[in-house]
Amino acid sequence: MKVQNVMEIVVKDVIEKYKKELNMSCTCDHCMNDVLAMTLNNLSPQYIVDEANSAYIRAIHQADRQGATAILTKVAWAAGVVAENPRCENVKNPSNE
Amino acid sequence: MKVQNVMEIVVKDVIEKYKKELNMSCTCDHCMNDVLAMTLNNLSPQYIVDEANSAYIRAIHQADRQGATAILTKVAWAAGVVAENPRCENVKNPSNE
After folding, report:
1. B46 vs A: CB within 8 A
2. DSSP string of B34-76?
3. Helix (DSSP H) and strand (DSSP E) numbers for chain A
4. How many whole angstroms separate alpha carbon A19 and alpha carbon A36?
5. Closest by alpha carbon to A44, among B2, B41, B72?
6. Residue B47 belongs to a domain
7. Predicted ipTM?
8. Residue B17 located in a structural domain
9. Residue A37 and which of B20, B41, B62, B97 are 20 to 30 A apart at CA?
């Protein structure tokens, strides 16, 4: 069985677009995956069967200013949580300083 | 970026386990994907970053009788909707008979 949550694409687009503005101390794959997973866990999924529709739904999200702002707000929240509690090895644990 | 919604695995398990009991007129890939997508759109996602954890979370769901029943209820609902309105070619449209 093969389905896809279009919100994965939409949130990845938002994270890539605003990566710099998120001001994260670490932007390694692990940290960015944590931001993506946390954001997706706070959004209603939008699963589709026909991959052909994903470009169409992605475009709808890009045109939807209000929706995009809501997603960016959740990405910024997740980025804040991850920046405070990085699980990756790159960033020395702030509390040990 | 690579994340996974563990609910995809959990729901696939439930669909495979109860496929016969769902009494669907058509069980082609397209119809089963429609059931999977509709069910997932009605469940809170559970995205993880470390794939190693998916087996662990899957086991939690299998042990969680109440949770499994809730998922089965949603799968049965989705199967009913898909059986009523199959989008695949295999089943002649019931309303034309």
Report:
1. yes
2. HHHHHHHTTS---EES-THHHHHHHHHHHH-HHHHHHHHHHHH
3. 4, 2
4. 12
5. B41
6. yes
7. 0.84
8. yes
9. B62
**How many independent structural domains does chain A possess?**
1
Q: Which of A47, A48, A74, A81 should we substitute to test contact with B (largest number of B Cβ atoms within 10 Å)?
A: A47
CB-hemisphere CA count at 13 Å for B25? Answer: 15
- Residue B95 counted as domain residue: no
**Single-letter code of the amino acid located at A23:** N
Instruction: List the domain range (segments joined by +) for residue A43.
Output: 4-96
A23-53 pLDDT, tens digit each: 898 889 999 999 999 999 999 999 999 877 7
CB proximity B12 to A under 8 Å: yes
- In a domain? residue B82: yes
The per-residue pLDDT for range B13-59, each reduced to its tens digit, is: 999 999 999 989 888 999 999 999 999 999 999 999 987 777 887 88
Euclidean distance between the first and the last CA atom of chain B, given in angstroms as a whole number? 49
Lookup result for tokens 């209603």: A44
3-state helix, strand, coil in chain A (%, to 5): 65, 5, 30
Element (H, E) at A34: helix A29-40
Q: How many residues does chain A have?
A: 97
